[in-house]
Amino acid sequence: MIIGVPKEIKNNENRVAATPSGVAELTKRGHTVYVQSTAGVGSGFSDEDYVTAGASILPTIEETYAIAEMIMKVKEPIEPEYKLIKEDQLLFTYFHFASYEPLTKAMIENKSVCLAYETVEKADRSLPLLVPMSEVAGRMATQKGANYLEKPLGGMGKLLGGVPGVLPANVLVLGGGIVGTQAAKMAAGLGANVTIMDISLNRLRELDDIMPANVNTMMSNGYNIKAMIKDSDLIIGAVLIPGAKAPHLITRDMLKDMKPGTVLVDVAVDQGGCIETCKPTTHAEPTFVIDDVLHYCVANMPGAVPYTSTLALTNATLPYAIDLANKGWEKACKESKELAMGLNVIKGDVVYEAVAEAFDLPYVPVEKYLD
């Protein structure tokens, strides 16, 4: 198979979809890999590294899309890329369709095959290609939140862990999945007073067993969230419904109950956000303020630590990429239910039900293409 790895062009996105070691694994199996020039520089990989691994370098993004049967990316295509995508071309990347209708409609119109990292799902409901970036984003959420609590950056001026004789900050984490768990661990490690909320009592029991003493667990419901936000200094939104838009757990009118200088970090922003006032921001302009509450809503948080993120992501995606390249997407997805779950749009049809529901689009069962 001919595989193309274009340079990411989203604002401050420095990750790359394949490392030189990943390229070597593909080329030794007889596949041809084209990497756009400087695609890996932001993650610490030179063009020479890729050539040594067996790739060919192309100077432009247009040439990379034009030659490839499968495109491997990190972030969803943005508008300048829409016209470059060919009919029947396989795109293997994060899409988060349910949060952005123009992207969904563009992929329907170009009749490509869109296999989304975030909906590849194992039998136990785990999301193997979302986990590594969720781990990074969860840890970064606390790191960024602690930073923005500083007064010069718009926060209330609290040190997350306090000092002897001064109480630590209160951190509220909404969601006990991968993101929430990592965020809570980081906050606890810095000495904060942490509360993590989830709708699953079994998950809260698990967290109660593994978390340190300065982490409390609490059932997530509207009443409890309204009560907790009043005394929280940092609130981290970590809610995920695979492939679907995140529910709004914090609404616009709830901001008035928060202290001035409270910091909100919404990690669910790429799925529409679990905070109603959330809107996607960039690393160049990461924050905004509403009602004296600071919002940090960067949609590609792991892009700020590209070396770590690229290695973590490709550790997870490479086995699936090899399977797709070896067999083609149809055979690979027929033989792998978890890969089939990643299919969202195929040749103009929406085959992932949550995406169809998000925009009231016709839904076509994926079996149409895999029988």
CATH superfamily of the largest domain: NAD(P)-binding Rossmann-like Domain
User: How many domain regions?
Assistant: 2
Compute the CA-based radius of gyration. 21 Å
Tell me what portion of residues adopts beta-strand conformation: 15-25%
Gross morphology is: globular
Overall mean confidence score, pLDDT: 96
Run of helices and strands: EHEHEHEHEHEHEHEHEHEEEEHHHEEHH
Helix content: 25-40%
- The number of helical segments is 14
Q: How are the strands of the largest sheet arranged?
A: 3-2-1-4-5-6-14-15
The CATH topology of the largest domain turns out to be Rossmann fold
Please give the largest β-sheet.
8 strands, mixed
Main CATH class of the largest domain:
Alpha Beta
Annotation, overall tally of beta strands: 15
Give unreliable regions as ranges: none
CATH arch. level architecture of the largest domain: 3-Layer(aba) Sandwich
Distance between the termini: 23 Å
Structural class: alpha/beta
Explain what this protein looks like in three dimensions.
By secondary structure, this protein is α/β, with parallel strands linked by helices. Helices cover 34% and strands 16% of the residues. It has 2 domains: 2-119 and 306-370, 3-Layer(aba) Sandwich (Rossmann fold); 131-299, Rossmann fold (3-Layer(aba) Sandwich), CATH 3.40.50.720. β5 (90-93), α5 and β6 (113-116) form a beta-alpha-beta unit. α1 (20-27) packs parallel to α2, α6 (131-148) crosses α7 and α10 (306-327) crosses α11 (329-335). The chain is globular. The two termini are 23 Å apart. 51% of the residues are buried. The mean pLDDT is 96.
